[in-house]
Specification:
5-stranded mixed beta sheet, alpha/beta, elongated, 3 helices, about 190 residues, two-stranded antiparallel ribbon, Beta Polymerase, domain 2
Length: about 190
């Protein structure tokens, strides 16, 4: 029947929960992915029951295509970007994927240099990446090659900065965006 977590039902029957079966199915899926895609991985970390793959920019797109088509990671939860503010590979883009049937989460990280912060788009694999990649471009300045509509989301197109980078001043850059006029004080009744 498979391994699971034993429990005692109201009728005194000791059964096996499906959660345990799904957990081990999911972990075997992760182990299989890790073994088969090892040449494309720089590092693998396990923390709090979740797995993180670190890959290089060169292996990024083939890895993501394999995860989507061969291994069934059918849901892109979100994309995040981190500014490590260090020499070399300054920016890290984090993709949180999920295999809905196996209930398995997988985090994929890829580092890109400050001088050339670009990655291929994955919006053809997961349509929801369209929005997340546009946000990463607008806030962090990471370009996604092949993106169908890489426009800024929050800031004007001619705004020359990316506000979530660590060198961006906390109060913004004076004069870069016009502020709305102040209303005169209203009298109290």
């Amino acid at each position: 029947m498979g391994f699971g977590v034993g429990f005692l039902g109201l009728d005194g029957y000791v059964g096996v929960r499906m959660v345990g079966v799904l957990y081990f199915y999911g972990m075997s899926l992760i182990v299989r992915v890790q073994e088969e895609l090892a040449p494309q991985l720089v590092e693998v970390k396990q923390y709090a029951g979740e797995t993180t793959f670190l890959t290089s920019r060169e292996h990024f797109l083939p890895l993501m295509e394999a995860l989507r088509h061969k291994y069934g990671f059918d849901y892109l939860v979100d994309i995040g970007a981190v500014d490590h503010f260090e020499d070399g590979l300054r920016f890290e883009v984090v993709y949180n994927l999920m295999h809905l049937e196996a209930r398995v989460r997988l985090r994929v990280k890829v580092r890109v240099p400050e001088e050339d912060p670009r990655l291929p788009t994955v919006s053809h694999l997961w349509p929801s990446a369209n929005w997340h990649e546009r946000e990463a471009w607008d806030m962090m300045g990471i370009r996604f090659e092949g993106h169908p509509d890489l426009r800024r989301m929050y800031l004007p197109e001619d705004f020359g900065y990316h506000p979530l980078r660590k060198e961006f001043p906390l109060l913004g850059i004076p004069g870069t965006l016009p502020l709305p006029p102040k209303d005169p004080p209203k009298p109290y009744l």
